[in-house]
Amino acid sequence: MVAPPTASGLTPEFADVTRDESSLRRFLHGLPGVDQVGVEQRAAGLGTRSIKKASKLWAIDTAISMVDLTTLEGADTVGKVRSLCAKARRPDPDRPEVPKAAAVCVYPDLVETAVRALAGSGVGVASVATAFPSGRSSMRVKIADTELAVAAGASEVDMVIDRGAFLSGRYGQVFDEIATIKHACGDAHLKVILETGELATYDNVRRASWLGLLAGGDFIKTSTGKVSPAATLPVTHVMLQAVRDWHDSTGELRGVKPAGGIRTTKDAIRYLVAVHEVAGPEWLSPELFRFGASSLLNDLLMQRRTQLDGHYSGPDYVTVD
């Protein structure tokens, strides 16, 4: 295993955990099991919380500021990325007070286009890497993929873990890959995609979350958006618990990004309630929580207009991606 990443406040216990494969395995399998019924009931209960008008407007603006506008299709073009960047800079052209999106996420070869389009805006540029979405390639290719994105100006990198290695119990291999990609990121933030829809159990989600944190991930992310199910509230609860417990143990704040399947304002508010109640209010910030979505933004903008104007605004009033 490669040397573990240094972290302020990292306890000797965690330093020992990453010493070798057997120590890592003992730690991950020693984590408390997830109460499936309990986590699903709590997620359902928090999802019924009502939000009053003033708070709802705040929640909508907060959610807008957390959106990573994403286009990850084989047919992506320079023009499509530029259009997405313009929307990220000014989501509602008629309402300049609307917050800008957190970032635009593209493939590595389109990072330079996004960087130019977003220059001076404060909107981040994220790039998927490490043979996204499958993660099936050599480390040499994965490193090169990451270095290409960073050299083009990406401020954030979204990597995918090797789910086959994880599910086979080769935790040291997964740890090494994350730590190596973190090093290749340089100053760029690393989001570690767990692809929770392929992990089968909440216990595996908890183990994968801790593995991503131990190896140096700045964020842990649910999904690529290419596998169903993608993000779910119960899975996000488990991941929020992991970053909360990490903070309690080390003093460090790490983020969570649910991605895929979050399409409505009602969905987004449910996630924000979970963030507040499970992790804490500190995480209600784009520095620590993101939505991996694009269609979500349109609904947020329409619902925002409804809150302010008193009537529903149809899709013709916002750009359609």
Automatic annotation (TrEMBL):
<dbReference type="GO" id="GO:0009264">
    <property type="term" value="P:deoxyribonucleotide catabolic process"/>
</dbReference>
<dbReference type="Pfam" id="PF01791">
    <property type="entry name" value="DeoC"/>
</dbReference>
<dbReference type="InterPro" id="IPR011343">
    <property type="entry name" value="DeoC"/>
</dbReference>
<keyword id="KW-0704">Schiff base</keyword>
<dbReference type="GO" id="GO:0005737">
    <property type="term" value="C:cytoplasm"/>
</dbReference>
<dbReference type="GO" id="GO:0004139">
    <property type="term" value="F:deoxyribose-phosphate aldolase activity"/>
</dbReference>
<dbReference type="InterPro" id="IPR002915">
    <property type="entry name" value="DeoC/FbaB/LacD_aldolase"/>
</dbReference>
<protein>
    <recommendedName>
        <fullName>Deoxyribose-phosphate aldolase</fullName>
        <ecNumber>4.1.2.4</ecNumber>
    </recommendedName>
</protein>
<comment type="pathway">
    <text>Carbohydrate degradation; 2-deoxy-D-ribose 1-phosphate degradation; D-glyceraldehyde 3-phosphate and acetaldehyde from 2-deoxy-alpha-D-ribose 1-phosphate: step 2/2.</text>
</comment>
<comment type="similarity">
    <text>Belongs to the DeoC/FbaB aldolase family. DeoC type 2 subfamily.</text>
</comment>
<dbReference type="InterPro" id="IPR013785">
    <property type="entry name" value="Aldolase_TIM"/>
</dbReference>
<keyword id="KW-0456">Lyase</keyword>
<dbReference type="GO" id="GO:0016052">
    <property type="term" value="P:carbohydrate catabolic process"/>
</dbReference>
